[in-house]
Design a protein that fits this description.
Elements lengths: L3 H12 L5 H7 L6 H8 L5 H17 L6 H48 L11
Helix pairs in contact: 1-5, 4-5
Amino acid sequence: MKKFEDELYDAMCEVFPRTTVRSISRVMGMSESYWSSICSQGLKVSNMALMKLNEHLEVRVIQLDSESSKILQIKAIQLMIAKEVVSRFVTKVDSISQVWEEVSSVLTREQEDVSAVCDALPFLMARG
């Protein structure tokens, strides 16, 4: 199974045959070496870079003739980007929920420990 980044690059090359690793990096709002760097390190494209690419594609759709066959291909790439971002968000939300449960249980235990040691502090009110 191909990685998302490979599928994205292939799809971009199909719609825009002159696409290079440098040009895709630029349209993502990153340095020219961004794409090569993330691929060589096995990293995922950042969400910000995907959003910039999506904006670039939206501009390209506006520039094209409304009857162009490329519009459907570009929309397919945009859908691919949207699905990837949503899947990342879902993964993060699950892990955040798990972390929150763990933190909540620790905080509850700490509150029980502290309440057994400390009582309410006395205070004085003075009229002036």
